[in-house]
Amino acid sequence: MRSPRFTQLHHADHAAVRAELLQGLTAPAAHTSPKFLYDALGSRLFEAITELPEYYPTRTESAIFASHGSHMAAHIPAGATLIDLGAGNCHKAASLFDTLRPSGYVAVDISVDFLRDALELLQRQHPGMDMVGLGLDFSAGLVLPHEVMKDAAPSNRPRVLFYAGSSIGNFTPDDALGFLRSVHVACGNAPGSGLLIGVDLVKDTAELEAAYDDALGVTAAFNLNLLLHINRTLGTDFNVREWAHVGLFNTTDSRIEMHLQARHSLTVRWPGGERAFTSGERIHTENSYKWTLPGFQALLVNAGFVASQAWTDPGQRFAVCWARAL
């Protein structure tokens, strides 16, 4: 039986992380990157969010794969290398192995430690498949190193890049275009290569906002946990009881926004600095852009993909797109 190979390319720069957080907290409109939501507890809270009745994206995307997997397989070449961007526990990609029949699997996440147990289990279940765990931060663009990819994804084998969960929504439209262009390059030149991607669609505002502000308050806990993460990283003295979660749909920019709002006037301090917040002032913590299907397919074409096929749920709340690179 083969063994999965692991390569860690991303190495945390703690000074850069602190500088990025301080820059956001001291900006005229305070903000942080959504990546800081996902410390160990934040990641577990997000897993819980995906089980909530209000949070439709995960189960709707899964239902699309279950209903239309055979149709997708008719467009996607068997024997390709499946490259899973933001693989996490690898469950979504693994559920497609029988349908898409890849010959290799590359799981990409910011840390191979997130991937190790999942990949070792998958390798036992699929002993003949080449598997690689790649620790890579692709948030600023995707570059797949040749030396890591040459065995699991040789240049003459089609590549299927897989980006599930509508994570593309965390990018602004301009940044999404830049990212998708880098994905197009990463598809390589083998005929049949392309991108399989999930995208959340514009829908009723009440349904959107409920998905990001659930009745149990799990999303609120997920957002508030960011303050604890910042406390550990910067030595700030945020008190989570002084802040409230806000989730709203910005119709002008077609995006869900998450904020933390000060319940009263307060001052946050850290070694060497402080920031005063007025009552109701917010820290902007995440955006999740929602697309129309024609708008997203036009974005794919603009990124260099030559054609796309889309599948949706009956309510057209979510879509999965296959976009050919050549």
Brief account:
This protein has about 325 residues and is of the alpha/beta class. It has helices at about 15-25, 40-50, 55-75, 90-95, 95-100, 110-125, 145-150, 175-185, 205-210, 220-235, 295-300, and strands at about 5-10, 80-85, 105-110, 130-135, 160-165, 195-200, 245-250, 255-260, 265-270, 275, 280-290, 305-310, 320-325.
Describe the structure.
With 326 residues, the chain is α/β, with parallel strands linked by helices. It has helices spanning 14-25, 40-49, 56-75, 91-94, 97-100, 112-125, 146-152, 173-186, 205-211, 218-234, 293-302, and strands spanning 5-8, 81-85, 104-109, 130-135, 159-163, 194-200, 243-250, 255-262, 266-270, 273-277, 282-289, 307-312, 318-324. The strands form three sheets. The chain has an eight-stranded mixed β-sheet with strand order 1-4-3-2-5-6-13-12, with helices on both faces. The chain has a three-stranded antiparallel β-sheet with strand order 7-8-11. A hairpin with a 5-residue loop joins β12 (307-312) and β13. α2 (40-49) runs antiparallel to α10 (218-234). The radius of gyration is 20 Å and the shape is globular. The relative contact order is 0.17. The model has no long low-confidence stretch (mean pLDDT 95).
